TrEMBL record:
<dbReference type="InterPro" id="IPR035965">
    <property type="entry name" value="PAS-like_dom_sf"/>
</dbReference>
<dbReference type="Pfam" id="PF00072">
    <property type="entry name" value="Response_reg"/>
</dbReference>
<feature type="modified residue" description="4-aspartylphosphate">
    <location>
        <position position="66"/>
    </location>
</feature>
<dbReference type="InterPro" id="IPR013656">
    <property type="entry name" value="PAS_4"/>
</dbReference>
<dbReference type="InterPro" id="IPR000014">
    <property type="entry name" value="PAS"/>
</dbReference>
<dbReference type="Pfam" id="PF08448">
    <property type="entry name" value="PAS_4"/>
</dbReference>
<dbReference type="InterPro" id="IPR043128">
    <property type="entry name" value="Rev_trsase/Diguanyl_cyclase"/>
</dbReference>
<feature type="domain" description="Response regulatory">
    <location>
        <begin position="17"/>
        <end position="131"/>
    </location>
</feature>
<dbReference type="InterPro" id="IPR001789">
    <property type="entry name" value="Sig_transdc_resp-reg_receiver"/>
</dbReference>
<dbReference type="InterPro" id="IPR029787">
    <property type="entry name" value="Nucleotide_cyclase"/>
</dbReference>
<dbReference type="InterPro" id="IPR000160">
    <property type="entry name" value="GGDEF_dom"/>
</dbReference>
<dbReference type="Pfam" id="PF00990">
    <property type="entry name" value="GGDEF"/>
</dbReference>
<feature type="domain" description="GGDEF">
    <location>
        <begin position="322"/>
        <end position="455"/>
    </location>
</feature>
<feature type="domain" description="PAS">
    <location>
        <begin position="150"/>
        <end position="202"/>
    </location>
</feature>
<keyword id="KW-0808">Transferase</keyword>
<dbReference type="Pfam" id="PF00563">
    <property type="entry name" value="EAL"/>
</dbReference>
<keyword id="KW-0418">Kinase</keyword>
Length: 725
């Protein structure tokens, strides 16, 4: 096929067409016959006029002309031929032999001049020579035109390729690169020709790219395929992703003579290939990958990625005998925002919270959104629990300031459970689960704080299920007991109040304390029912003591956060109180500051309603939370209970003691009653008395005890209280 094609290019297959022009018919015929004897395709023109007509009708390779002809002479025919058929060769055959005529004929384009009478052999040789030359010129032009077309076609194909097409020499310098590099990366081709391909490789891929091209086993059957980032022109950072397929050039199939054909390095091309822009695919892949492992709202790692990182961190920690901490964070009051301001605001809040939390963390830490308003945090390589404690405090503090959401000022808090590897669990699941358990303990104590997991919180899943079942049964079978801890006036040593504290008389496990079951009750929402039973029992017991000679005796009850948050809290509580005809003025509810701050507006309304009935309100654990003067001032608060931790600190004479001074002074200033909790020693009592804090509660006067003990205590001598403790 190629041979046929070449033959077609190189030779003209038709026999040359010759126009013979003379005004003498005899001479004309002789000349024509002579040429026909050599198989030329001959046309006779009798005179110049007919010749011109012929030139208008047909194309000729050659014209043999007489000069002296009547009307239209040979020069005019030459002029016509030059105008109409510039490719037609001209030979003059004339009896005119003056220098002028010859030179004029040659100037008009005659290729040769044969004088009459002519020698037939000489004429045939001249014609053959001119025809051969004409054929060569014509074929050359045709080949050139075909080559130009072919080159244009290939150039068009290469340059309109969607890919970058390139050739490299042995050392990796660019011999050729198509225009696509300009539209994709911004480089004019001339700028890259002769440069090493490293010039456009992203720094991160230079080593890999260079190694790939130097690899020994690259062959036509085994092209080098690799993905790299190429730099865009004029930007130090912007890159696009390309998939490069490079082949070696076989010198056998494309022999190059010294210089690269069409190349610009002066070296033979050794590799050719294409670079396909796969940026969109890579970005789509990256997005899908991101989606699989991240939460799209906060852009934080999701549960799957968190677990993966935790697994890895545990392996490292185990190998290096290090510690790590897992925190389980649950936002407080998020639900209120979501329900009242809508999900869009809820989403914005989660983003803002994420932003603040992230600011508290180091580079290697992993904060993840576990779902809803739950986050988990991995702190790898900590020295000990103190590091985690510091971070937990920072996180809590970071969320203290209000969030501005479309004109609304919103407060949220965070409850954080912490588990430290390896003490609180050696596996990923255990660490997360135990941090979650610890978090529920924070929630049960009024939210917005942190707690470390300890084994005492733990109940494994099986135990947990059986404990939950037991607790449900306990509520049905009335296994809950109410113990009372006296609140004593230190001046008179008289019992002024009783704090109701729940106990569970478990049929197999004996007497259980709130820490053993309250978080579970909170988690399973059984706490509401539990509290109702406690209130009922306490109203019955204390109501009896009130009506039997202790009219001023105060009943203090603890309320769980979820109980207070319930929309019908006031109504439910008052129903129980009135069901037992308990005088509201003898009832004091204890709530923590965090419960109040959970939803200041709602709680404030509820507390006002309660206070209007005569019920008293005490702030439990005062000093450990917000200690905000703002709400103390705005709410109907009657009593502050100084947290045990500050009372304990009295003994050491450290900062805690100063806090007691401050709280007592503040309570006096605001005309609030004050009860100091956890009083265990005479020194603490003396110190508190010296501050003017006369209502105290603690093991100094005795722990919480069953109702029967309280009956005899109230009947006996109040002064003997200290001895019964
Ligand atoms: N929603 C409800 N919560 C309740 C109810 N009953 C108890 N609780 C909550 O459980 C917390 C722990 O209670 P408890 O184990 O009974 O501990 C109380 C006292 O026994 C203990 N205490 C008292 N004096 C001392 C002391 O001198 N030293 C010392 N180490 N501990 C002492 O303190 C607890 C009472 O604290 P407070 O409530 O802050 O006054 C308990 O704190 C409640 O939150 C319930 O019915 N419903």
């Amino acid at each position: 096929m190629a041979t046929e094609h070449n033959k077609d290019i190189l030779t003209s297959s038709r026999c040359p067409r010759i126009l013979v022009v003379d005004d003498e018919p005899r001479l004309l015929r002789t000349l024509a016959d002579l040429l026909r004897s050599r198989d030329y395709d001959v046309t006779e023109a009798l005179g110049g006029r007919e010749a011109c007509l012929q030139l208008q009708q047909k194309t000729y390779d050659l014209a043999l002309l007489d000069l002296n002809m009547p009307q239209v002479d040979g020069f005019q025919v030459m002029k016509e031929a030059n105008q109409r058929q510039p490719g037609c060769g001209l030979i003059v055959v004339s009896g005119e032999s003056s220098f002028n005529s010859v030179s004029r004929a040659l100037r008009r384009g005659a290729l040769d001049y044969i004088r009459k009478p002519f020698d037939p052999e000489e004429l045939l040789a001249t014609v053959e020579g001119v025809v051969g030359k004409q054929t060569l010129i014509r074929d050359h032009k045709r080949i050139q035109s075909r080559l130009e077309k072919s080159e244009a076609l290939h150039r068009y194909i290469v340059n309109s390729s969607p890919d970058i097409v390139f050739m490299l020499d042995e050392t990796g310098h660019i011999c050729f690169i198509n225009n696509k590099v300009e539209s994709l990366l911004g480089y004019p081709t001339a700028e890259l020709c002769g440069k090493h391909f490293r010039h456009i490789l992203d720094d991160r891929d230079v080593a890999r790219g260079t190694y790939a091209m130097q690899g020994p086993d690259i062959s036509a059957d085994n092209p080098r395929v690799l993905e790299v980032r190429l730099k865009t022109r004029g930007s130090r950072k912007a890159t696009r992703h390309f998939e490069i397929t490079a082949f070696p050039i076989d010198p056998q199939s494309w022999p190059q003579t010294g210089k690269t054909q069409g190349g610009c390095t002066g070296q033979p091309a050794r590799y050719y290939g294409i670079a396909r822009d796969v940026t969109e695919r890579k970005e789509a892949e990256a997005f899908i990958n991101f989606q699989a492992y991240h939460d799209l709202l906060t852009r934080l790692p999701n549960r799957a990625l968190f677990k993966d990182r935790l697994e890895l961190a545990i392996t490292h920690a185990r190998r290096g005998q290090q510690k790590l901490a897992v925190m389980f964070l649950d936002l407080d009051r998020f639900k209120v925002v979501n329900d009242t301001l809508g999900h869009a605001m809820g989403d914005r809040l989660l983003q803002a919270v994420t932003h603040r939390l992230e600011k508290c963390l180091r580079k290697g830490d992993t904060l993840s959104r576990f779902g809803g308003d739950e986050f988990t945090l991995l702190l790898p390589c900590i020295h000990g629990p103190e590091d985690a404690r510091g971070i937990a405090r920072k996180l809590i503090q970071a969320l203290k300031a209000p969030f501005q959401l479309g004109g609304h000022e919103v407060f949220v808090g965070v409850s954080i459970g912490i588990s430290v590897f390896p003490e609180a669990g050696e596996t990923m699941d255990m660490l997360i689960q135990n941090a979650d358990i610890a978090m529920y303990h924070v929630k049960a104590r009024g939210k917005d704080g942190y707690r470390f997991y300890s084994d005492s919180m733990s109940i494994n899943t099986a135990n947990r299920l059986s404990l939950e079942r037991d607790l449900r049964l306990a509520l049905e079978r009335n296994e809950l007991r109410v113990f009372y801890q006296p609140q004593v006036c230190s001046r008179s040593n008289r019992v002024v109040g009783l704090e109701a504290l729940v106990r569970w008389q478990h049929p197999e496990r004996g007497l259980l304390y709130p820490r053993d079951f309250l978080p579970l009750a909170e988690e399973t929402r059984l706490v509401g029912k539990l509290s109702e039973q406690v209130i009922d029992q306490a109203c019955r017991d204390v109501g009896r003591w009130i009506s039997t000679g202790h009219p001023d005796l105060r009943l203090a009850v603890n309320l769980s956060p979820s109980q207070v948050e319930h929309p019908r809290f006031v109504e439910t509580l008052m129903n129980h109180v009135s069901a037992h005809q308990f005088p509201p003025a003898n009832l004091e509810i204890e709530i923590t500051e965090n419960v109040i701050m959970n939803d200041l507006e709602q709680i404030s309304q509820k507390l006002k309603e309660l206070a209007a009935t005569g019920v008293r309100i005490a702030i439990d654990d005062f000093g450990t939370g917000y200690s905000s003067l703002n709400y103390l001032h705005r709410l109907p608060i009657h009593t502050l209970k100084v947290d045990q931790s500050f009372v304990k600190a009295i003994r050491g004479g450290d900062d805690g003691a100063c806090i007691v001074n401050a709280i007592v002074a503040m309570a006096h200033g605001l005309k609030l009653e004050i009860v100091a909790e956890g009083v265990e020693t005479d020194d603490q009592l003396t110190y508190l008395k010296s501050l003017g804090c006369h209502q105290v509660q603690g093991f100094f006067y005795g722990p919480a005890r069953p109702a029967a003990d309280i009956t005899s205590l109230l009947a006996g001598d109040a002064l003997s209280l200290a001895h019964t403790g």
